[in-house]
Amino acid sequence: MAVHPADQRTQPRIASPRGVGVWLLLTAAVGAVASMLLMRERIELWRDTDYTTACDINPWVSCGLVMDSWQASTFGFPNIFLGVVGFPLAMLVAVTILGRVQLPRWYWLGLQAGVTFALAFCIWLWSQAVYSIGVLCPYCMVVWAAVIPMFVVVTAGNIANGAIPAGPGLRRISADWWWVIIVLIYLVVAASIIVAFPNAFIG
């Protein structure tokens, strides 16, 4: 992904190919671990319907109750499969980036499409867990926490490096405020959870 000379002075280290690769590798690794743990719990539930998952903590925090909902199989198969396949694939992409391979623009746009879908799906799952199912899945929340910076950093990198056309203002915002965006999203998610599940925190 070539950097426009005029943008080099505004390009943060995080938006460089190496910076994007490191963040993508770390966040994908976190998401992959959480997905594998969810898969293990799902398999145990298939084997024994009376199995109590490791994250069944109370009526408001339970992986098992979430897995029993229809939202847990949005596309006709367990959502877990998306993470088990998608995150290792993202790790492979990260390794390719860190290997200093010159990647075409369509490759970066494909990565952007992937992380955008991941964030959109996580937003929908968050809304369903908080406002419809009424139960939180800790492993799922780890996946949300990984996907948020994954999306923001990849997007900031694509904007800063020209894969996504943008004006100087948007380039400057992506260069200087990417971390603020991550923090704000975390705060919004945390606040919605605290407001929706006060009993889970104050008893």
UniProtKB/TrEMBL annotation:
The chain crosses the membrane at residues 20-39, 80-100, 106-126, 133-157, 177-202. Keywords: Disulfide bond, Membrane, Oxidoreductase, Quinone, Redox-active center, Transmembrane, Transmembrane helix. InterPro entries: VKOR (IPR012932), VKOR_Actinobacteria (IPR041714), VKOR_sf (IPR038354). Residues 17-158 form the Vitamin K epoxide reductase domain. Its main location: membrane. It is a multi-pass membrane protein. The keyword Oxidoreductase applies. It is found in: Membrane. CDD domains: VKOR_5. This is Membrane protein. It comes from Nesterenkonia lutea.
